[in-house]
Amino acid sequence: MKPPPFTWHGPRSVDEAIAVLGEVGSEGKVLAGGQSLLPVLAMRLAAPAHLVDINAVEGLDTITVDASGVTIGALVRHTGLLRHPAAGNAQPLIPQALSCVAHATIRNRGTTVGSLAHADPSGEMTSVLALLGGSITAQSTRGARTIAAADFFVGPLESTLAPDELVVSAHFPGTVREPGTTSGTAFAEIARRHGDYALCGVAAIARVDAGGALLSLRCGYLSVSEVPLVLELTDAWNDSERAAVELARVGVDPSSDIHATAEYRRSLAGVLTARVARTAIAKARSVPELRAG
Amino acid sequence: MTESRPAGRRLPVTVTVNGVARTADAEPRRTLSDFVRHDLGLTGTHVGCEHGVCGACTVLIDGDPVRSCLVLAVSAQGHDVTTVEGLGQPDTVTELGPVQRAFRDCHALQCGFCTPGFLTTITAGIAENPTPTRDEAVDMIAGNLCRCTGYQNIVEAVLTAARYAAGDDTPGGPAGHGAAGVEH
Ligand SMILES: Cc1cc2nc3c(=O)[nH]c(=O)nc-3n(C[C@H](O)[C@H](O)[C@H](O)COP(=O)(O)OP(=O)(O)OC[C@H]3O[C@@H](n4cnc5c(N)ncnc54)[C@H](O)[C@@H]3O)c2cc1C
Ligand code: FES
Ligand code: FES
After folding, report:
1. How far apart are CA A34 and CA B10, in angstroms?
2. Is A79's CB within 8 Å of B64's CB?
3. In terms of DSSP bridges, do strands B11-17 and B80-82 run parallel, antiparallel, or are they unpaired?
4. 3-class secondary structure, A251
């Protein structure tokens, strides 16, 4: 259970980090919080020849909240984001989901951007980024590019990030504020033990009009598909709760493992969809309406 | 300048452990848990699973509980690390810190393998939340596994440690024995 040997690089700036990543190419891996990478190395599931440790890189630990939402640097630890009240106000799904990411001790070290880069379809934040239509910004010696969540996750633990790219930040869109409408969010998951990876988790965003009628309902799923799954449930819900639950049950594509059977996960997806949808819609209806002008 | 350390080469690593700057040679792949145990000789930190699941190896880095098996020693350079050896209070009769006294008084350990990880986690936990409720106490230790105790007495020790740390020395006791500090 010891990591295989690797050459360690300790850059101090983004420029230095991308220079090393450019040199080592596909032989290298970025080391952020290490809460996913070090277990992978300890279990010898990977043996990169070079680790580029970004823990001492300046300027990557900022959280910016503006009208568009929340932008976090690559070294923002889960705990730091969870404890940022302005980030939670701008996008309530962030703290709702983050409090289910692992245990506090893991959150103290693990970074939210690292968990996106890890592209685990069992990760809470990958699913939240996908549901919100967020993006990540990557930098390499070839330049910078911003990748939409929909184009980023391509398979379990697989993203469209190139080996020489460093994710410098991620952007989570904030609550949409449009006159005459209000929105609400909710997150729920089932894990054997609080803090463990979920057997199934669901995030929901609902928008209602001034009369309380549902305009939009979208849910994001984790642990029940190969990439973070987003389902559009508005019409189904307006038809009946049962129709929306059924759509969720057929929409997910879970597999069986030692923790749960596929059928159990599918059943949880239905149950949790009803639960978070009801909560999100109720919250949307209770928000004071934003008036034009 | 990017510092690079070649694979397999043992180079000096300096970490402040329990207030003292300590240096030892280590390979890049050396975890902080192995560094404090094997290179610094501080064997109080225990290693169970080596992949972040059991919590036995928990130390404080700059005051926050972290799995030392999931941090490289080189990444900890320049940081303050507190291990279980740093939790005592040498100027007191028992030389035990409040969390250690609570563990003794509440019978919160049996084999003791998991204990160092609980002690560090709870020390930071009650520093952050000096008056935890029982639910908060349960949540505080949710990331640590114990194969022996069944957790009841550890939860009791969290509540008792919080009182001890606040200067209330009414002794705690094992859960279910009606001792002071046990809420029913
Ligand atoms: C016991 C345990 C339980 C856990 N439970 C959960 C859980 O319930 N839900 C959950 O979501 N996570 C869970 N995690 C994982 C945790 O959230 C990790 O912190 C996270 O997945 C990875 O973040 P990190 O900073 O530790 O990344 P690292 O482990 O350092 O890196 C992970 C991967 O991402 C790459 N990477 C990281 N940062 C960058 C970057 N800036 N640019 C390019 N590539 C990068 C690395 O090269 C590596 O491939 C758990 C971990 C443990 C040990
Ligand atoms: S040994 Fe580190 S968490 Fe188990
Ligand atoms: S006391 Fe034996 S594992 Fe906890």
Report:
1. 21
2. yes
3. parallel
4. helix
